[in-house]
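Homework-ish question, so no full write-ups if that breaks the rules, but can someone show me the predicted structure for this set?
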Amino acid sequence: MTTPATELNSIIGSELDSDADQFLTFVLGEEEYGVDILRVQEIKGWDSVTPIPNTPEYIKGVINLRGTIVPIVDLRQRFNMPEVEYGPITVVIVLKIECEDRDRIMGIVVDGVSDVYDVPPEEMKDAPDFGSVVDTEFVRGLATVDEKMIIILDIDHLLSGSELQAADSISG
Amino acid sequence: MAQFHQTFFEESFEGLDIMENELLNLDVGNADNESINTIFRSAHSIKGGSGTFGFTAIAEFTHVAETLLDEMRDGVRQVDQVSVDLLLKSVDVMRDMLTVYKDGGDMDADNIAAVQTELENLLGAGGSSTSADDSGSTTENTASAGWIISFKPHVEMLRTGNDPIRMLHALSELGEIEVVADISELPTFADFNPEDSFISWEITLTGDIKKEDVTEVFDWVEDECDLDIKPIASESESPAFESSETTPADVEASSTKQPAAKQAAAKKGGGESASIRVGIDKVDEIINLVGELVITQSMLGQIGGEIGSDADHNSNRMEKLLEGLAQLERNTREIQESVMRIRMLPISFVFSRVPRLVHDLSGKLNKKVELVTLGESTELDKTVMEKIGDPMVHLVRNALDHGIETPEQRLEAGKPETGTLTLNAYHKGGSIVIEITDDGAGVNKERVLNKARANGLVGENEVLSDDAINDLIFNPGLSTAETLSDVSGRGVGMDVVRKNIKSLGGSVRVDSVEGKGSVFTIQLPLTLAILDGQLVKVAEETFVVPLVSIIESIQVKAENLNGIAGKADLYKLRDEYIPVIRADHVFGMSNSQASLNDRLMVVVEGDGKKAGIIVDDLLAQQQVVIKSLETNYQRVDGLSGATILGDGTVALILDIAGIIDMFKEKSAPVPPAPKGNGTDSDIADEAA
Amino acid sequence: MASILAVDDSASMRQMVTFTLKGAGYDVTEAKDGMEALQIAKSNSYNLVITDINMPNMDGITLTKELRSLPTYKFTPILTLTTESSADKKMAGKQAGATGWIVKPFNPDQLLATVKKVLG
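A: Not a homework solution, just the prediction itself:
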């Protein structure tokens, strides 16, 4: 006999596995990527940005997020993918990055947001160096959900700690 | 207990500063007793506190110093330079010890022991006991089956707030007691004064009780009663006890030795002002919130302005709304100014480090220096103040080390033996200016220039203005043998001083005349949080130019433009040439070589250097709240931060000195030169 | 609820004393020197006064004498905080009319024990 709970479960189709990490997935070009949901602060639509001079191409500029200056990174450009025009479904995911010295907030521009998935630790596989678009330095692992492969990103490395460090040391 | 440590550290460091200050200002031959008392009390407090909170090492060390001070205030010991210097050394030791307790690390045990020994030696002859003398009673640990206690309070015992009943209670807690009261001395009712004590008691206390526990009960009233304690059922000699009728009235001439403690005169250093300690995070929060308020108000103002221009001006409501907004702006501005002032403190906090430094250094260098400080009450932001201390100290060291000459040299040069070092602070526009002036030898231009040439910083045949030569001392590539002297310290050069001051959004320059002296001028923003700015448009973007950096804004006239080998444009502004900076190029926004003629140029100054920045439009002037780029991103050359405009968008704030540097890197150094040939730039006119 | 006036020019000492005594249920008022203490004492009433000796503006000995000259404080227990256990310092307090003394450094328990002893 099925109880209402188990019925509900089968409808939702998810397993409430408390050990699983949850990831927000998004699309860039052909591939699907995921970031730890706990790091996602918010998701906004694309709006204009103030460019900052003499910064790498993939740093689009900064925005005002309720009084704080937040840098915006174009992930396509970061991964050396071809650029696209930003459209109505272009989205900025605002993330909390943990750096050595402190936490920072940054936004990444992506083509669109997909879904949230649970990935139990045992399902996370190491990324082989198969020459994918993304430098494996940024990849935390690979997961398969619904027959799709999701590239789980290590966002702390993504937004290049080393660059930030170098700059910080100048400002002392 | 640890919760009180913070306060203890704060007040102890303050106490040490007070001690140091008073010691430095002591007129050795004619020491002011009030001062000595102040110094004593500070040491005394630190000793007491450190003992209470378990910092025994400090307590022990301080005790010795305190003993020395006690002798001085009692008049038993002369106040001489030797003791003063030794006490100053002790202050340093105590400071170090406190710092170790507070921040961790190791104590310099050798140094501590050495100074302590010096103190003890000085105390030597006097041999004042540092001991904890026990009060008279001998302690016989004999426990017996009990004690028979005769207790007769003196008539006035009640007047010290002691209550015999309490003592009886205390005794009852030690064992079984039987009390017999003797009221034979009670006067008649009519003559009875309830404030006097006429009753005595005989108490039998049984139990295995130590005598010292019994005497302890009467500890406080030893001199105010007749006390006799005999063990039960034994003939043992009665132990010594205090039964003197003679009150120690005269014994204590020493109690009157606290005369100076009886102030009268206001405490040196100003009266007690009503103040409270507030955690700085609370203040920062208020400042942030006020910053947000300013932005919001600015947004409303903007919207109001837009609606206002469309609406019917005769509409009453609109008038009222606009009035309300104007009032809001005034209120907001006032709150902001008020809040900014909370974090402002007088610069005397920084200046106060200098007398000690001058005292020690001039001693070490065998130079005679008089220190003059002006404008000590000039206020600046606490954070800025904390960071300006080290650079200032370095400049003072430099003035003493390289600036002021030895007495012999000075006499030879026809100067008075004693050199003068002047510190002056004042407000100018939106900044605070700190001048460090010495009447010493000035910058040796020839030596500097030679060194610079030797290091390749300056071309062999390059001609530099005096100012430019003097400015070279801030160049990292320059370190004359002099700057490696022990006093100035290796590796902490003038370049670091400038870098640190820059990071505060300030600048430092030097004016010097050889043989006469030098003036180092530090300019700092009054606050790190807000800025008066001129909004400008460059290409499509809005930037903010700090108003303090702007000299003037003009329209470019082609005939004043000059090109140098196609690399740089110079503009003739009255009688000087300034480099022309195309903002759009510097910021990589465009490479356009469009004509500069009739364009808008903002003439700015940073770090003593002037330049003209080409912009596309001049917008409003407004006060902006500085937001950090570094919080979430990183420092960017040429920018000192960002701000949020009334419409919610981000505008970048220019760092003028930084931009001028960036520009120089992109082009060759620009000396004042005769007009050259225009090349690929489209300068309309080439002057011959 | 017995009320206590604690006088000491050291903020950390005051904090410690207040914290300890309040924790035991006493009402505690602080003063940072003798002058302030005297003023406060005049406009309120306390069951016990604990005072440091070395303070600016009015030291503990003078404070004690002043308090004793006030009718309401003739018999109020007054304890001096002394860092030395030498006889003459203790006696100076007694001379001025103090009930007794507490020797610094003391720990909270010693303080409480002494206060209890005096207030019953």
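Now go work out the reasoning yourself. Hint: The first strand of chain A starts at residue 21 and ends at 28.
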